[in-house]
Design goal:
The complex is a heterodimer of chains A (about 260) and B (about 425). By secondary structure, chain A is mostly helical. Chain A is built from 11 helices and no strands. By secondary structure, chain B is mainly β. Chain B has a domain of about 210 residues: Single-stranded right-handed beta-helix, Pectin lyase-like (Pectate Lyase C-like). Chains A and B meet through helix 3, helix 7, helix 8, helix 9 and helix 10 of A and helix 4 of B.
Chain lengths: ~260, ~425
């Protein structure tokens, strides 16, 4: 499997897209830290960037990469290799490359300007989101053979998690305005890895005081060691479930 | 030291005495105890207390005399007594450290109590670890100057107020440092009082708490890190100018809370990093001008019951929400404010934006109606909806609008920068 990972990594780096991604992240985060004037503003800017750009890039890049290496995957499948090894190798290669780009592109500026708990939480959330959305991209790509449909699906997934989910939450909240909504809201937040990551980071920042009673509840849930591990657990599920589903489909698939 | 008018006062109060005597208290001096000196002193005398620790229980000052501490003599209440009680007019007390006062459940026990008198002066004392620090009740024209009042660090909830004014007229509270009590400065039925140049911080409840204290003034004070900065309740005509409200941060903290207020002036203050800078409940005819709101969660929360208020020439920058209103507001006029979120243009370059600005964002309305939706703070959907609402206002209150927002921030109010001195 390590061989596959290495091969995928080499292939990705040769394509130079990942280098462009790294450079863009670097430029954006240095820009945010220098323009905003103070560190917390820079971090908030970075948070928005990570919440929008990282999922999009992971989904599109993961999907396209999967389709482009279809022939290579077919070749591997003809060898005495388990399907699981092939897909996990591909996944680790892609996710590893994207995580590396993120750690360089955002980790370096964070280390220089905001080396604190908030900065590192932000980075960790970025890495986890990368894993989640590469897994989702693979799920989409495995499910359909047609590249156009696959990319469309990736876009839809991004659109749902980045925008629609929040809109739906607002709709539901308006519909059930008269009921206590703290716990349902938190459950709905857990249904979206982007929102969950955002709240975890915001709770580290002092804006958490604005969140009033709900924020206090959330902080009770997530601020403690057990809370952080439960959030990490939920995010881990967000990696494992799509990846497991993708494996399940890939194993039964007629390539 | 006696000022000139006080000498005259003493002379006029004590016509029988040829000249005021000076009594010395201290180890090896003519009086070993302060109590002895107090008994021996006549009106107009000065008692000088030299350094040392005096455990004499409750001391009553019922003659018009001057109490002067040399090198910070300590009056220790051993956790049992109200240490100094002043009931005579024109008493001046300075230079003491008053500590370890008692506490009572039936009565408010203070470090220094001024009661039922007039023109007393409490100046330059240190009050430590007392339930109530300096307590003025039913007294007029007293002055509380340059004292340093410190409660128990971390604060016990049964703690009293640092400076407590009850049923007074014309009290001046100037240059005091007040920390770690329940309320920093508390006024109830204390009209025509002046609170200036105080440094109020780390108190459990309010920095400054006004109840029924009409026609009062508080200026050039700093309120920092209190449970909530300043609460002004049920009071008319309060002048609040050039104060600094900072770091009153917490899930229900605010810089300034106005409840059933009318005819107040809020001018030239700076509100920095408060969860809510100004919370207004049922407050009418307020003039809010030339203030700076920066880095707050909410700059101003206005309840519908507030009307006829003017918000003019303020600077709003870096607040999560500028204005929150729980519905349509009547006669709240916004003009010539600077809003950092304003996206309009100024074609004729007269410094005033050509498009009106609506300071209540859609999301602010949503959060007001459904508090849990605050979990969507800084999510892209919220930004998108705010932008859509700006283009086609539908939910946000129509009449909360600044028709003439300025393009550049107003220059900082120099009166504040020059006058706000922290006294040592």
């Amino acid at each position: 499997m390590l061989k596959i990972v290495r091969y995928v990594l080499q292939d990705i780096i040769r394509s130079r897209i990942i280098i462009a991604y790294t450079l863009i992240l670097l430029a954006a985060s240095f820009g945010l830290f220098n323009l905003g004037g103070d560190v917390s503003k820079g971090l908030i800017g970075l948070l928005s960037l990570i919440m929008l750009v990282v999922p999009l890039v992971c989904l599109i890049f993961g999907t396209i990469h999967f389709y482009n290496s279809y022939e290579f995957i077919e070749l591997l499948a003809s060898q005495p290799l388990k399907r699981r090894t092939i897909l996990l190798g591909e996944f680790l290669g892609v996710a590893g490359a994207l995580c590396g780009a993120l750690l360089l592109g955002i980790g370096l500026p964070v280390l220089l300007y905001a080396a604190g708990a908030t900065g590192f939480t932000l980075l960790a959330v970025g890495v986890v989101l990368t894993l989640v959305f590469v897994a989702l991209a693979f799920l989409g790509a495995v499910a359909t053979r047609d590249k156009a449909r696959g990319v469309g699906m990736a876009m839809l997934i991004w659109f749902y998690f980045a925008l629609l989910h929040g809109g739906l939450m607002l709709l539901i909240m308006f519909a059930f305005e008269d009921y206590p909504l703290e716990k349902p809201t938190m459950a709905m937040i857990a249904l979206n890895p982007i929102d969950l990551g955002r709240v975890v980071v915001l709770l580290q920042m002092d804006v958490s005081a604005l969140m009033g009673y709900t924020g206090a509840l959330m902080k009770d849930l997530l601020g403690t060691a057990s809370g952080i591990s439960s959030a990490a657990g939920i995010l881990l599920l967000w990696i494992l479930i799509p990846l497991g589903l993708a494996l399940w489909i890939f194993r039964r698939k007629d390539l | 030291m006696m000022s000139f008018p006080h000498r005259l006062l003493c002379l006029s109060l004590a016509p029988g005495v040829a000249w005021a005597a000076v009594l010395h208290v201290g180890p090896g001096k003519e009086h070993a105890t302060l109590r002895g000196a107090l008994n021996a002193a006549g009106a107009g005398d000065t008692i000088t207390v030299h350094s040392g620790t005096y455990r004499e229980g409750a001391l009553l000052v019922d003659k018009p005399i001057q109490l002067v501490g040399e090198d910070w003599p300590v009056l220790d209440g051993e956790g049992k007594y109200q240490i100094v009680t002043i009931t005579a007019a024109g008493v001046e007390m300075s230079g003491f450290e008053v500590r370890n006062g008692g506490a009572g459940s039936l009565e408010d026990v203070a470090g220094i109590k001024v009661s039922g008198t007039r023109q007393a002066v409490v100046r330059n004392n240190r009050v430590r670890n007392c339930n109530f620090g300096i307590y003025v009740s039913k007294a007029n024209e007293c002055r509380i100057l340059d004292n340093d009042v410190l409660g128990v660090q971390g604060g016990a909830h049964e703690s009293g107020n640092a400076i407590h004014l009850w049923s007074c007229e014309n009290i001046t509270v100037t240059g005091n440092k007040v920390h770690d009590h329940r309320d920093g400065i508390y006024l109830e039925f204390a009209s025509h009082s002046v609170i200036e140049h105080n440094l109020v911080g780390d108190n459990l409840r309010y920095g400054l708490h006004y109840m029924f204290s009409h026609e009062s003034t508080f200026r050039h004070n700093r309120f920092e890190r209190n449970g909530a900065g300043v609460a002004v309740m049920y009071t008319r005509k309060v002048d609040m100018s050039f104060n600094h409200f900072g770091d009153n941060w917490g899930s229900s903290a605010y810089g300034l809370m106005l409840k059933d207020m009318s005819d107040g002036r809020i001018i030239g203050n700076s509100f920095v990093r408060n969860s809510i800078a100004i919370a207004m409940h049922g407050s009418n005819r307020m003039e809010i001008e030339h203030n700076l709101f920066s880095g707050n969660g909410w700059a101003i929360q206005i309840q519908r019951s507030s009307s006829n208020n003017n918000y003019r020439s303020n600077n709003f920058s870096g607040n999560s929400f500028d204005i929150a209103a729980d519905g349509e507001l009547d006669n709240n006029r916004f003009e010539k404010n600077y809003w950092d979120k304003y996206e309009g243009y100024d074609l004729n370059r007269d410094g005033t934006g050509d498009v009106p600005y609506r300071p209540v964002s859609l999301y602010a309305v949503v959060v007001g109606r459904i508090p849990p939706s605050v979990l969507l703070l800084r999510s892209p959907i919220v930004h998108l909806l705010d932008q859509a609402e700006k283009a086609f206002p539908s939910i946000t209150p129509e009449r909360v609008v600044d028709d003439a927002p300025v393009m550049r921030p107003h220059p900082a109010d120099t009166r504040m920068a020059n006058d706000q001195t922290e006294k040592p």
